[in-house]
Amino acid sequence: MPRSRTFRCSVFIGTSLDGFIARADGDLEWLTSRGEAAGGDLGYNAFIEGIDTVVMGRGTYEPALTYDSWPHDGLHVAVLSTTLEAGADPRVTVHRDLGELVTALEERGAKSVYVDGGQVIRTFLRAGMIDQITITTVPVLLGTGSPLFGPLGGDVPLAHRSTQVFGAGVVQSTYAVEN
Ligand SMILES: NC(=O)c1ccc[n+]([C@@H]2O[C@H](COP(=O)([O-])OP(=O)(O)OC[C@H]3O[C@@H](n4cnc5c(N)ncnc54)[C@H](OP(=O)(O)O)[C@@H]3O)[C@@H](O)[C@H]2O)c1
Predict the structure, then answer these.
(1) What Gene3D superfamilies does UniProt report for this protein, alphabetically (predicted)?
(2) Which of 61, 69, 91, 137 is buried deepest, with most CB atoms within 10 A?
(3) Among the atoms of ligand 1, which is closest to the Cα of residue 147?
(4) Which atom of ligand 1 lies nearest, measured to the CA of 98?
(5) What pLDDT digit, counting tens, does each position of 68-79 carry?
(6) Nearest C-alpha to atom 34 of ligand 1 is from which residue?
């Protein structure tokens, strides 16, 4: 039974055709190069305009520290991790499990949450807490890497909302989750 909550949760993520979000060593060049070839922002700016909170796993947070600039200025960022030191980075809050995170988001008055990172997305899906999924698929098979999807407690029925074909064979589809 999905837990009742006061905020919506959305996924906006890029994958290979075989469903990987990063190579095993974290490399994303296969994705970014094809995204650049497709041109434009692939709908990211419109998506992020409606978001007040980003939730990510440590596996997504740590690589973001190496980017030229912090990607989420102006948004509250909550990181799920059992190992990160809490309070070490003033730009984020750290949460040890989903229950604690949900309580904290509700106390902060979060309304629209961007859920990022494969393990964390799967955690939210299993809890019946994802409302919308936008997947941008680039035309490559990686064979191995960090998966987007994995075992669930049961089927997750989806309603197709839209599909757009960009340049360079990049295809983006949005689904509503029928929780
Ligand atoms: N293609 C894209 O659009 C895209 C988007 C985002 C990320 N990425 C890439 O994907 C990779 C990361 O994805 P990932 O699936 O490996 O990891 P992830 O979901 O970002 O992070 C996994 C970590 O989050 C913590 N975690 C997850 N669920 C938790 C829970 N229920 N309770 C407490 N902690 C929890 C754990 O940290 P602890 O081990 O500390 O407990 C776990 O090791 C990176 O290479 C990143 O750059 C790609």
Answers:
(1) Dihydrofolate Reductase, subunit A
(2) 61
(3) 15
(4) 31
(5) 999 999 999 999
(6) 81
pLDDT greater at residue 135 or residue 1: 135
| Ligand 1 in reach of 58 Cβ (< 6 A) | yes
How far apart CA 132 and CA 117 sit, in angstroms, is 15
Pick left, alpha or beta for residue 22 (phi over 0 → left; psi -120 to 50 → alpha; otherwise beta): beta
Q: Does residue 103 form part of some domain? A: yes
Is residue 3 assigned to a domain?
no
Kindly give the pairing relationship between strand 92-95 and strand 20-22: unpaired
Q: Judge whether 117 lies within some domain.
A: yes
Cβ of residue 84 lying under 6 Å from some atom of ligand 1: yes
pLDDT at 2 over 80: no
* Overall number of domains in the chain: 1
The pLDDT mean for the chain works out to 97
- Looking up residue 151, the CATH number of its domain turns out to be 3.40.430.10
18 is a domain residue: yes
The best mutation among 21, 32, 170 to test binding of ligand 1, ranked by most ligand atoms within 8 Å of the C-beta, falls on 21
Parent domain of 87: 8-177
98 lines ligand 1 (CB under 6 A): yes
